[in-house]
Design brief:
The structure holds two protein chains of two kinds.
Chain A (H helix, E strand, L loop, with lengths): L1 H4 L6 H37 L6 H32 L8 H16 L5 H4 L2 H17 L4 H20 L19 H24 L1 H11 L1 H6 L4 H27 L4 H4 L2 H14 L6 H16 L4 H20 L3 H7 L6 H11 L2
Chain B lengths: L1 E10 L2 E11 L4 E5 L6 H8 L7 E6 L2 E2 L5 H6 L2 E3 L12 H11 L8 H15 L14 H14 L4 E5 L7 H16 L3 E5 L3 H7 L2 E6 L2 E6 L1 H6 L1 H17 L1
Parallel strand pairs in B: 3-8, 3-9, 6-7, 7-8
Antiparallel strand pairs in B: 1-2, 1-4, 4-5, 9-10
The chains are: A mainly alpha, B alpha/beta.
Bound molecules: adenosine-5'-triphosphate (ATP) and magnesium ion.
The site of adenosine-5'-triphosphate (ATP) has 11 residues of chain B, from α1.
């Protein structure tokens, strides 16, 4: 874990290069974070004067939309990493928590006329409570039994909600539209993504995190050393569910229309797992990097028609290549201990050239 | 300190343990011997809560253990090792021991920093201090067995259950391991150890219990047990025969 990361002393030039990369990275982050504000401001101005409404407006809106979607997937992948990456339980049904969060906000704003600000905090609570409830029986299962059971649960929750008239049935729910709030939704999604990363960071440094990793590595050994494995697994599952449910809650208000298809899409399950694994499951920034790159690829390639097919094929090839050549993800490839990683290559160079 | 009464454990139709009763007194080193498949490891799994009993009871300082999950047994002060080692492979040696320190008995609030320094002390005791920062993958089999002991010790147990931690060691390493067991014992820890190496049993055990086909066959000081005709027939006989032929 964290210890090993500090065991290599970078050379002076190495440090300088690292600092340059860090500064460049921070600059990109600042631009990405500020852009939606200026873009939507222009959009709002344009809106006051309809004659200037044009192609720029549409492009600006789509940039903000892209950024918001990417931030959403960063949160989903980082949340999945808590149960799938750190604890080693391949949850295949996290979209249930996304949908529950979305329906919580949708129901409370549309049917109960609660404000979005009051409804949103309940989204993660509902999702986490549900995870706690199903987690106790499901987390007794291991390996692909757990994966299939969670996948089934994810589908079932959506079907049940679709058939309940209080939740709009097949028509769906319509949270009242918030105007000129594109920037707000981006910042909410980005804040949730940041929260997911901070939570992961805190977990990884804590007793809780050591317990989760011990469970992943050998659950029986963890239990005889005193780890309350059931409580820890359910805790990690509920934490992942809360972050996923929060993303769903924001999404519901953002899209101002939800139904079963739009907030329980099965492919989200696969996407968030791919993102975490390709970036590096069990690492802090792996899922973040995986989500940014993959969702950006999906959004820019999936224009429809032939390019969508290529995008799908590309994703499949990417997954195969990653699992075969970089089994522990891209982050590990650059810094980690696997024999296929650049870090290993650098270290062996240094060790052989004394 | 530990009391087993009529402990029974079945797998399918086969009784791995039938009606086993004995006690462990505070401060002693108790040897548990018997041929392969006698039920020794199964007995450890029953005590540590990994298996549920099919009959009988186990009490530790007057508290019923049977029915408790493994983590609660651990927190009451019982540490154990696994005959087939079960390390946390992605962690360093030090982190492995630290997990024991973080979750073991009566120290639910040990901060990570304190846990790591306690882990370092334990690694020193078992002779792994110099390998603390290696990952488990680069350890030899004897070192992995030492790590099993370190992890269990890190939980600060009052009763330590060791399952063949000296199997596969050469004579010099066995002597080192015996020293380690004596040191641990001198620190006030009661020990139950499963061993096939008779030199170990004679060397450190105050008392020995022989299991055979899931049943309590004999009990006594090492000398008494080694001269017991039933024990020689059931267990030692085949060992001596093997030695004569090999
Ligand atoms: N999980 C299990 N499922 C089915 N049978 C089991 C299980 N564990 C042990 N057994 C059976 O119970 C019997 C006792 O096994 P155990 O491992 O306790 O023996 P042991 O005395 O530790 O032997 P060894 O000296 O080889 O380690 C054996 O017949 C074994 O096959
Ligand atoms: Mg055994």
């Amino acid at each position: 874990m964290s210890e090993a990361a500090f065991s290599t002393q970078p050379s002076r030039t190495g440090r300088r290069i690292r600092r340059a990369i860090l500064i460049a990275f921070l600059l990109v982050v600042v631009v990405v974070l500020v852009l939606p504000l200026t873009l939507t401001q222009q959009a709002a101005d344009a809106n006051l004067d309809p004659t200037t409404l044009g192609i720029d407006f549409a492009i600006n809106k789509s940039i903000v939309r892209t950024e918001t979607t990417i931030a959403m997937f960063v949160a989903l992948a980082a949340a999945w990493n808590l149960i799938g990456g750190l604890t080693g339980y391949a949850a295949f049904g996290n979209v249930a928590f996304f949908g529950l969060g979305a329906y919580t906000v949708g129901f409370l704003t549309d049917k109960q006329h609660l404000s979005f600000a009051l409804a949103l905090p309940l989204a993660p609570l509902v999702a986490a409570a549900f995870a706690g409830l199903i987690g106790v029986p499901l987390l007794r299962l291991r390996g692909h039994y757990f994966a299939i059971a969670t996948l089934g649960t994810g589908v079932a929750v959506g079907e049940v909600i679709k058939n309940l008239d209080v939740f709009g049935g097949a028509t769906g729910l319509f949270p009242p539209i918030l105007r000129h709030a594109d920037a707000l939704f981006f910042y909410l999604m980005a804040a949730n993504a940041g929260l997911a990363v901070v939570v992961t960071w805190l977990v990884m440094r804590s007793r809780f995190g050591y317990g989760l990793i011990a469970i992943r590595e050998n659950e029986e050994a963890a239990s005889v050393l005193g780890v309350n494995t059931t409580a820890y697994k359910v805790g990690a599952f509920a934490l992942a569910a809360a972050l996923t449910g929060l993303a769903g809650g924001i999404f519901a208000q953002w899209s101002s229309f939800i139904d079963q298809e739009s907030v329980f899409p099965i492919q989200y399950n696969v996407q968030m797992i791919l993102m975490a694994i390709i970036g590096g499951a069990g690492t802090l920034f792996g899922p973040v990097a995986g989500a940014i790159v993959l969702e950006w690829l999906i959004l820019s390639l999936a224009g429809g028609g032939a390019s969508a097919v290529y995008a799908q094929m590309g994703l499949g090839v990417l997954l195969a290549v990653t699992v075969i050549f970089v089994p522990r993800g891209v982050v590990d490839f650059f810094g980690g201990s696997s024999k296929l990683s650049l870090g290993y290559f650098r270290r062996s160079l240094r060790e052989t050239s004394v | 300190m530990l009391e087993l009464a009529g402990v029974t454990k079945r797998f399918g139709g086969v009784a791995a343990l039938s009606n086993v009763s004995f006690t462990v007194a505070e401060g002693e080193i108790l040897g548990l011997i018997g041929p392969n498949g006698a039920g020794k490891t199964t007995l450890l799994n029953c005590i540590s809560g990994v298996y549920r009993l099919d009959g009988g009871s186990i009490t530790f300082d007057g508290r019923r253990l049977d029915g408790l999950p493994p983590h609660q047994v651990a927190r009451l002060g019982i540490g154990r090792t696994f005959q087939v080692v079960k390390p946390f492979a992605s962690m360093t040696v030090r982190e492995n021991a630290a997990v024991g320190a973080l979750f073991g008995s009566g120290q639910a609030h040990l901060a990570p920093k304190a846990a790591f320094s306690w882990a370092d002390e334990v690694l020193e005791l078992v002779g792994l201090a110099r390998k603390a920062r290696l990952t488990v993958g680069s350890l030899t089999i004897p070192d992995r067995k030492r790590l099993e002991v370190a992890r269990a010790l890190a939980t600060k147990p009052r009763l330590l259950l060791l399952d063949e931690v000296m199997a596969g060691l050469n004579p010099v390493e066995v002597d080192e391991a015996l020293d380690m067991v004596r040191k641990v014992h001198a620190g006030g820890i009661t020990i139950v150890l499963i061993e096939h190496v008779m030199r170990v049993v004679v060397g450190v055990c105050d008392r020995v219990i022989v299991l055979h086909m899931g049943q309590h066959l004999a009990e006594g000081t090492p000398d008494e047990v080694l001269q017991d005709r039933r024990v020689i027939e059931a267990y030692l006989g085949e060992k001596y025969a093997a030695r004569r032929h090999g």
